[in-house]
Amino acid sequence: ESVSALLDRLGDAGSALRRAEAQQLFAEGFTRTRIATTFGVSRQRATTLLSRGHAGTQPSRHCANRSAGPL
């Protein structure tokens, strides 16, 4: 497996963990603003983390680029 593919998988796993953590904090009563502060991101980014948690994981950039076809 190439280093690029491994890095993509590692990034995907990190993103999934971050989404799961945000979901758990939200379930415990944290506001989106407090989650944003905890993660050091904007409130809009915290909202994105929460909404993607409901939709499941997103494909990695590596896989998404491969399936996009010619430009």
Care to describe what's here?
With 71 residues, this protein is mostly helical. It is built from four helices and no strands. Helix 2 (32-39) packs across helix 3 (43-55). The longest helix is centred in the first third of the chain and has 25 residues, at 3-27. It is elongated and about 40 Å long. Mean pLDDT is 81; it is low at 55-71.
Descriptive terms for the model:
single chain, 71 residues, mainly alpha, 4 helices, disordered C terminus
Number of strands: 0
Run of helices and strands: HHHH
Low-confidence stretches: 55-71
Name the helicity range.
over 70%
The whole-number mean of residue pLDDT values reads 81
Structural Rg: 14 Å
By DSSP (H or I, 4+ residues per run), the number of helices equals 4
Fraction in beta strands: under 5%
Structural class: mainly alpha
Spatial gap, N to C terminus: 26 Å
Q: What form results from the Cα inertia axes?
A: elongated
Biggest pleated-sheet summary:
none
Helix and strand arrangement:
Elements: H1 3-27, H2 32-39, H3 43-55, H4 61-67
Short description:
The protein has 71 residues and is mainly α. The chain has 4 helices and no strands.
